[in-house]
Amino acid sequence: MSKETKAASSKDWVHYYFKSTSGVIGLILVLIMVTLSIISALNLAPIDPLEQNPVDALKGPSGTYWFGTDQFGRDIFSRSIDGMSRSLSVALLSVGIAALVGVFLGVIGGFFGGWLDGLVVRASDVIFAFPAILLALAIVNSLGNSWIDTSIAIAIVYTPIFIRVARGPVLTVKEMDYVKSVRVLGFSTPRILIRHVMPNVLAPIVVQIALSLSWAILTESGLSFLGLGTQPPDASLGLMVSEAQPLAAFAWWSLFFPSLFITVVVVGLNLVGDGLRDALDPARRSSG
Amino acid sequence: MTLTIRDVTKKYSIKSRKTVVNALNGVSLTVEKGKTLGIVGESGCGKSTLARLIVGLEQPTEGSLNWSGAPLGQGVRNGLRSHHTKTQLVFQDPYSSLNPRQTIGACIAEVIKTHKLRAEDQVNARVIELLSVVGIAEDMQNRFPHQLSGGQRQRVAIARALAAEPDLLVLDEPVSALDVSVRADVMNLLVDLKNQFNLTYIFISHDLSMVRHISDDIAVMYLGRVVEYGSWSEVLSSPKHPYTKALIQSIPEHTTVRGIDFENVLEGEVPDPANLPKGCAFNQRCPIAVPACAEKVPELLELTSHHLVACPEVLK
Ligand SMILES: Nc1ncnc2c1ncn2[C@@H]1O[C@H](COP(=O)(O)OP(=O)(O)OP(=O)(O)O)[C@@H](O)[C@H]1O
Ligand SMILES: [Mg+2]
């Protein structure tokens, strides 16, 4: 019986998600970017992103160079998808770490309270006290420039956000009568946390994951823009935007396409976040 | 088997305001198996606090609660099955007492499976049986709580409590959040269930007229204390405590109580439980108070063998 029940409910929210036009558009945008990243990661880009063709420097978009070339004659399309792949890797790793650590600490702290919660809240307040980009800069500066270093820096900056996003709803949900009911029914604490608390705090966390992925992409771009992320000659969307600034007046494509990629993936992730928020909240759905 | 509540107090310390709320100030009650004890009193008198102590959600500050000699409620803390299924609680608000992400069938099935109350292949049949006992059609088991009416949700909450096969059911204002039109149905259901499963009830309400339909005994509470206790017929036909009289007076069909004017007695402010008045907690609102009432807290004393009153003035 419960297998049927579970299947029905999960089919329900997937079904509901696909009823939303903006959610579907967001998903398509994100999937396009993910596909391009995979193509790049598999070395299937039309042109080697590092290959320099000085004769073709600063050419506009054409059949050979879809997005045109930069000042070294490198293919901007291949570099853009390479940069996207790097950005997405950093975003996934950093948000993955931040969400796992932050949600774990937030749920445990919020549910059990006491000194443990005090410690968690104080630690996240300390991190919150610093402006995000400055903190990321400082951490990257002391760690290094590899994409893993960048990811760790961004993860540290975003962990407190996940602590807050998880802890707040847990404080509310643990006082709800349905949690008290299952305590009276004698369910174990892990069961209560996993089956009754987590599902009811999941929606804001999922939305936060989608939003944080887009912020992480912006942060990685920002770090690279400032010269502290991906190092030349490797491609990064932030670095490309930074390098294109003096060229933008006469080679618009060098600034436009990397910026477009950043915009598309950020907008796409935001739309997905909104769609998930609606789909995961049964009360928001129309009956059925 | 008897529920024995002895000298129970519950204090909540509120750190932010540096005060202590005296939610219960020495409550002693007994309920025999198969009986229904009705607990009435105004908002804030500690009814829900007592309910939480009985089912073990919280521990008393002082005093003890026993079910046929064994301490109640430790099970919730220690995760011991043997204790916690014996007492169950039905909350007032059926809109918050069911997990919004669980179908009602899964919600009841989880109780049966977690405590292995039926073989795996019998679980579904048991869920359907429990739903039908509370008057919910079998084909509704895949619905989520938000797809149900308040009355239906409360029936599901009752079915979930019954799934644990309790001896004692604490009903904390089970119908006050419901539409007036379905209250009588749910009350009748509760009466049927009690007889069908030989349950013991503690029925909490701020409304005397609700309690008298179901109760064998009635305890009237005021600011964390029982001020009058006895069989419902006796308490209702010859109430002694001025607070009980005022409560009865407030029921529409009882306009006067034996000629004494208790009008407006309940209109005054209830004292702050964080700052209890000296002596009898009711003395500031009481129409028959004498100076001594502000000196000493009155004890609950026997009027007859099954009628106790905490008011020396009426016992004179
Ligand atoms: N967790 C808590 N912390 C602090 N004070 C509390 C807590 N729970 C209850 N109280 C206080 O204890 C007193 C009794 O509350 P309780 O909920 O038991 O009253 P009640 O009789 O159930 O009222 P109602 O009819 O409104 O449900 C109130 O003054 C309330 O503010
Ligand atoms: Mg209450």
Question: How would you describe this structure to a colleague?
Answer:
The complex is a heterodimer of chains A (288) and B (316). Chain A has 288 residues and is an all-alpha fold. Chain A has one domain (18-38, 75-287): MetI-like (MetI-like fold), CATH 1.10.3720.10. In chain A, 74% of the residues lie in helices and 0% in strands. Chain A is built from ten helices and no strands. Chain A has helices spanning 2-18, 21-41, 76-112, 114-129, 132-143, 147-173, 177-184, 189-225, 237-244, 252-280. In chain A, α8 (189-225) packs parallel to α9 and α8 (189-225) runs antiparallel to α10. The longest helix of chain A has 37 residues, at 76-112. Chain A is elongated, with a radius of gyration of 22 Å. Chain B is built from eleven helices and twelve strands. Mean pLDDT of chain B is 87; it is low at 75-83. By secondary structure, chain B is an alpha/beta fold. Chain B has an eight-stranded mixed sheet with strand order 6-7-8-3-9-10-12-11, sandwiched between helices. A four-stranded antiparallel sheet of chain B has the order 2-1-4-5, covered by helices on one side. In chain B, β9 (217-222) and β10 form a beta hairpin. Chain B has one domain (2-315): Rossmann fold. Chain B is elongated. The chains are: A mainly alpha (288), B alpha/beta (316). Adenosine-5'-triphosphate binds at residues 12, 14, 21, 23, 41, 43-49, 206, 273 of chain B.
